[in-house]
Amino acid sequence: MAVKLDDNDWKRVLDGTDSKTPGYSVFCLPIQQSQQDDRQYRLIRLENGLRALLVHDPSADKAAAALDVSVGHLNDPDDMPGLAHFCEHLLFLGTEQYAVENEYKKFVTSNGGSTNAYTSSSDTNYYFSVSSAHLRGALQRFAGFFHSPLFDPSSTTRELNAVDSEHKKNLQLDGRRVFQLGKALSKQRHKWSKFGTGNRESLLAAGRALSSQPAFATRENDEASSKDSLAAKMAASSGMPSPAPSAPSDSSLSKMDPDGGPAGRETRRRLVEWWESEYCAGRMALAILGRNSLDDLTDMAVELFSPVRNRGKDPSPSIRDSPLGPNEMGTIVFVKTVMDFRSLEICFPLEYQDDLYRSKPGSFIAHFIGHEGPGSLFSYLKRKGWAVGLSCGSTALGRGFNTLRVNITLTPEGFASYRSVLIVTYKYITLLRTAPLPPFHFAERQKLSETRFRFLQKQSADSYVSSLASTMQRPYAPKHLLSGSTMFWDWNEEQVRNVLRNLTVRTGRVMLMGKSHDEIGLGDVWLKERWYQTEYQVQRLDNELVAEAQLPNDISDLYLPGPNEFIPDDLEVQKLEISAPLKRPMLIRESPLLEVWFKKDDQFWVPKANVFLEIRSPLASVTPRHAVLTRLIAELVTDALQEYSYDADLAGLQYSFSSSSRGFQLSLSGYNSKLPVLLQKVLDTFRNLKVDSVRLAVVREQLRLEYENFKLDQPKDLGMFWMRYALQERAWTPEEKLVELHSINENDIQGFLNEILHRVFVKVLVHGNMSNSDALQVALKVETILRARPLTPAEIGLERSLILNSGSNHVWSTAVSNGSDVNSSLVYYCHVGDIKDDTLRPVLSLLAHVIREPCFYQLRTKEQLGYIVSATQVQSTGSMGLRVVLQSERDPKYLEARVEAFFDGFRDVLREMPDEVFHRSKDGLITKKLEKLRNLNEEADRFWTHLTSGYNDFLRAANDAEALQHISKEQVLDHFMKFVHPSSISRRKLSIHCHSQRAKSVNDTAAELHPRNTIISDLVSFKRTLHVSAAATPVADLDDLLVSKL
């Protein structure tokens, strides 16, 4: 190989032996890395302009790759909203080299990996992970997306339904509705105003308009051609069940033509034309991570991605014009929401912050406005009873333009007093604008960013490469690709002051969101946004409010935060000499009151720790009222600690205090030097909680909204809730809890707190950069502060599941409460056995692994039943099974019929599966089971999951991987036929049907349920007919696990 200089920081690499091998350039300066990062990096630029970051990770058991194209929905044609998103969908469905629709996804998933993609405003990002041995094969299939996609006519037509279903899934989501409304109310003809998701209407509109013209019809007749032979071959080779009746289709999509008729053909033509124009190699950033050497990774990138064409396009198309102009700034938008909540947002246009990444002035100002400590805007609003939450952030809406957004979650009083909330917010901004900014503020931000970067831990391979590819599109110096988004390098007060000068009442746009605006006294005329039908009104802020918002700050309770006492002062890592990391924590103390489990970090070597506590009481959820009391205590503790804990959170030390059916859970994670201080404060607050009637009223109102909004959840979420409810021995509905909530007062809570803390059992896990003696000190602190007596063993409470009876097929149906939701859902569950069954459990996991992709391909990609389709293994105490979830416009009875048709076809697919394919799938699952832990939190979470489950089965994944080696295809088939297939006379099936009140009148052929099904009329009565599972018991005797016994 010959090397020559390309420019100052790059070297040109030329191949001297094979003229067919393209050359490339290498970035020759070091890339700044975290001290913890043991990977090697190489940045190259191919001859076609595509940039690739190669990452050699010698310890990786998963390889991954991502490619980001600097084109998103802002690049959609004006007459085809959603085209970039539609293109993202289609690239997964075949290339010239691998024409079978699901070849890419099938290859990746069978080899222990996963695939995904997203389309944003200025980027489209594709990524996957796969077992390390199959990286090249996955890359070969992936690369074709960008140089030779098929855009098969039949696939294109069918995938219109998937995009349309995805949009309809979002129609009742307030986040999506408000987001699109904000876009629609931008400056006229600004690219930000586009509808990014797209739907059938938006994608077919141009084709319909053109196909209605006589000249177009004549051209279509002249260009008549053979039908979709490729799609026919693909269907013939799929081995799946007989075709389903077609999904509900738009009248513009010809039922006779698999390519969608004239409108569909025109849509496809425009799609191909757009891809050929916009998908340019110079706009692409690729990241590949694997165990392979940097030279091998470079060879793969050069060989497989050099065929991508450079079309001479601007590599980083950007928009420097703000979407908010004079007509939009200084206005207030009143928005009706689906869910019952109250929120205020102020959006300010901001200079593009990625250009200022060394100083990050927008982020620096957002730190102050979003602060929750003493003197903060939120602290003041909370004390006034106006707010329960506040956040502030600088966000790049698209490449070239930013906004700074202030979001305030309001109480009913705050909503009614929104004008006062606005005025106080602007007074705090005035305080920032006029006050000196002491140097320690930037010094703290800089120190925390350096510490965070220094001790960055690994994340999942696919998330990492996706993030890397996206970051490569930012205007960072190449040497800052890994550090640019984290580090604060430069203090630039002029840039900070410039941001503050632009945060005024005349430059912001306000949105006030709520289900009802009756108390505000608006008029009766509401406009509707086109795509989501969100109702809104727009007014200019009145002169009185503007004048008051411009006055100097006169609120003495507003002031800048002081020094952060939680910044870690001891970052020493207690390293040990070890031969191999331990696979489980040690039980270092056991008493009637508590168990203390401990593991010293022996592989990640960061100055961090995790402390998890479960405080159990049989009173926690014995009735709905008890469950609500337990929840209120947890919320009140969190509310009382909000100011105190905020500095800890900023300094990298987080806590969570929550309730469960068994009692309370406390988790603390972060830098260990100040962790004992925070632990002491949380426990003291909990034990000595004094219930304030004012704060109780606020917390109770938030809980009321949560319980009442439950019925407006997505149909799939409702279905999964009712499935859990049906199969839990003791569970309460939000409606049952809501009945109790209204009658609970501060005396009830205070009395219950004393009662529940009188006798408890505590389970403790201490993990990370702490010693055995540190862990015992945690236990002593718990005992000293709680001052509780122990429960008897019988009182500790053992959770159980309800088990479906053998040979039963049950259906329970309920309406989707949201009358505006067009979607229904099916949750279909087959019980398989006890989760503790070491023989059965690996077979179920393999069955779930091999069925997942075919289920998705058949029911979503081919039959287009809906955007959400999944098949997974699920488990609970004493139980496990296979669950299929669909959300669709189709009737749940029809969905159930299609699931059972799929199962019928899958029997033959499994029976005829070549041994090579089966063993490859098995190896892929084994790889997933044995995947290495990537960071300290992953290990702690795994230990805690096993501890709180009651099984303490820390070696389950390794044992299952070993068992999988010996499982045959015949075993999987036998278990499938016994536990899942509809013909089984012994299977145990329950399906939950949530049906839309707006269901279309569709001819759902075969929509009647199988006659063996029993319809459940009353779910509570049904639960009484089921038997109870075995309770969880440890796989090993606790006495044998005590350190003193080892």
From TrEMBL:
Region described as Disordered: spans on this chain: 214-265
UniProt entry tagged with the keyword ATP-binding: no
Stored InterPro entries: Metalloenz_LuxS/M16, Pept_M16_N, Pept_M16_Zn_BS, Peptidase_M16, Peptidase_M16_C, Peptidase_M16_M, PqqF-like_C_4
Domain Peptidase M16 middle/third as annotated: residue spans: 453-738
Alphabetical GO biological process terms: peptide catabolic process; proteolysis involved in protein catabolic process
GO molecular function: metal ion binding; metalloendopeptidase activity
Cofactor: Zn(2+)
Residue ranges annotated for the Peptidase M16 C-terminal domain, each copy included: 267-445
Keywords attached to this entry: Hydrolase, Metal-binding, Metalloprotease, Protease, Zinc
Top-rank lineage group of the source organism: Eukaryota
Gene Ontology cellular-component terms listed: cytosol; mitochondrion
Domain Coenzyme PQQ synthesis protein F-like C-terminal lobe per the UniProt entry, residue ranges: 846-944
Domain Peptidase M16 N-terminal: 52-187
Any Pfam family hit: PqqF-like_C_4
Extent of Low complexity compositional bias: 231-254
Family affiliation: Belongs to the peptidase M16 family.
Protein's recorded name: Insulin-degrading enzyme
